[in-house]
Specification:
Number of helices: 10
Strand content: 15-25%
Number of domains: 2
Distance between the termini: 8 Å
Strand order of the largest sheet: 3-4-8-5-9-17-10
Radius of gyration: 24 Å
Structural class: alpha+beta
Order of helices and strands: HHEEHEEEEEHEHEEEEHEEHEEHHEEEH
Helix content: 25-40%
CATH superfamily of the largest domain: Zn peptidases
Largest sheet: 7 strands, mixed
Low-confidence stretches: none
Mean pLDDT: 94
CATH topology of the largest domain: Aminopeptidase
Shape: elongated
CATH architecture of the largest domain: 3-Layer(aba) Sandwich
Number of strands: 19
């Protein structure tokens, strides 16, 4: 009987369907670990150890390493001080190719956002219902990380060997503008010809990410009661005026197109979010005079190409125009203090070859036209795109309620993502062995 050429997409899809239970079990195991980012510290260690064992059992060369013990970590230009990494390991693993092919790195973070109020059950007890898996980190981003591991396992078990190396890393401290876990990997010399970051994208492909700044904006004044004609200035009034400006300015920015090609027709406005207000003596049972300081914490996003100073000056100039007065003309000048590192936006060039390849794999796996656009969020992709020779794209599963109660990942999208990742590995890293045949 004449042998037929293998239909690899069908072989991969069949493998994924037969291993959906294992996919759910693997993700559930990772969710059961509390890996909430505590801003300065974290408890990722036990989950990282479990992932390390899983990758070793899979047959990958794996290692655990502490960022603080990595040579060049503190000297890296993207390093940001003020965090404790003494017992928070990264995981790195490689599936060696036979040589001569391009390498591909899947870089994910294991830490999660804080537990938001409103969960109806424990966020660390995964629940599957209506083809959705609920749990903290399911969507952002343990689901995408599991899809990468399963894609490697799929190709291994199908007997396919590639020429280029396939790498998987799981880093700590990405939430709250961390990025130092990703910095540590670059300081360690972990590199590839291309990077896929499995952040949640709803199977859209993001060749660019926004930037963002979290500032504490302070207004100062004088307090007391003007029984003798004293002049007082309530900084809460200045802060209120500034907040009204921010609301209007967000609307104004939404009417402007972003930079081409990835944000020229962006559907999502650049958010300016007031995250916290603080004024007055909160320890006093009553306050009968105005505060001397009022603090407004704000998260402001920007497009690639905008730096922190430029973003701050944009806000200061806009506030002057809004008020119709200058800062020397009885207009209180806001004071800006950085709360976390500035996250610059970043992008890859439109002709980066992995882009077209992933578009084709998305369309083959989903049967729908691939959406390619700029990410509506900031993340640690800038560490690759601005500080390394490894261009990074973002592609992850569908789901909902990231950073909110009831976070979930869609399991069908995870299955499709495994197909996409496996196909990308095959084509980017190039098969090195005879492929399995259908008889």
């Amino acid at each position: 009987m004449e042998k037929k050429e293998p239909n690899l997409p069908l072989l991969i899809r069949d493998w994924v369907e037969r291993h959906r239970g294992e996919m759910v079990d693997m993700l559930s195991e990772l969710i059961r670990f509390d890996t909430v980012n505590r801003v300065v510290t974290g408890t990722e260690k036990e989950c990282q150890q479990a992932l390390y064992r899983l990758l070793k059992e899979l047959g990958m060369e794996a290692e655990l390493y502490i960022p603080e013990e990595t040579a060049g970590f503190h000297d890296h230009p993207a390093y940001y001080p003020g965090k404790d990494y003494s017992d928070r390991p990264n995981v790195s693993a490689v599936w060696r190719g036979t040589g001569g092919g391009k390498s591909l790195l899947f870089s994910g973070h294991i830490d999660t956002a804080a537990v938001a109020p409103g969960w109806s059950s424990s966020p660390f007890d995964p629940i599957v219902t209506d083809n959705k898996l609920y749990g903290l980190g399911a969507y952002d981003m343990k689901g995408g990380l599991v899809a990468a591991v399963m894609a490697v396992k799929c190709l291994m078990e199908l007997g396919i060997k590639q020429r280029g190396d396939v790498l998987i890393e799981s880093v700590i401290d990405e939430e709250f503008g961390g990025a130092n876990g990703t910095v540590a990997g670059r300081a360690r010399g972990i590199a590839a010809d291309a990077v896929i970051i499995p952040e949640p994208t709803n199977l859209a492909l993001y060749p660019a990410t926004r930037g963002g700044a979290l500032w504490r904006v302070t207004f100062r004044g004088t307090t007391g009661l003007s029984f003798s004609g004293e002049v007082t200035r309530n900084p809460a009034n200045d802060a209120a005026r500034f907040i009204v400006f921010l609301e209007q300015y967000e609307r104004e920015r939404a009417r402007e197109a972003g930079p081409a090609p990835w944000y020229a027709d962006c559907k999502e406005p650049l958010p300016i979010i007031v995250t916290r207000l603080e004024a007055g003596d909160l320890s006093s049972p009553l306050c009968d005079v105005g505060p001397v300081e009022c603090h407004v914490d704000i998260w402001v996003e920007c497009y690639p190409g905008v730096d922190e100073e430029g973003l701050r000056e944009e806000l200061l100039a806009g506030y002057e125009r809004f008020c119709g007065r200058s800062y020397g003309d009885d207009l209180a000048r806001p004071e800006f203090r950085r709360m976390i590192r500035f996250l610059p936006g970043s992008s890859v060039t439109p002709d980066f070859p992995l882009l077209r390849l992933l578009v084709e794999e998305i369309e083959a796996a989903t049967g729908q036209k691939a959406e390619v656009t700029g990410a509506p969020f900031a993340c640690d992709a800038f560490v690759f795109n601005e500080y390394s020779a490894s261009p990074a794209l973002i592609l992850g599963p569908s789901g909902g309620n990231a950073h909110a109660p009831g976070e979930f990942v869609d399991l069908d999208s995870m299955a499709a993502l495994i197909e996409i990742y496996a196909g990308a590995i095959l084509r980017w890293c190039e098969p090195a062995t005879a492929l399995p045949r259908n008889n």
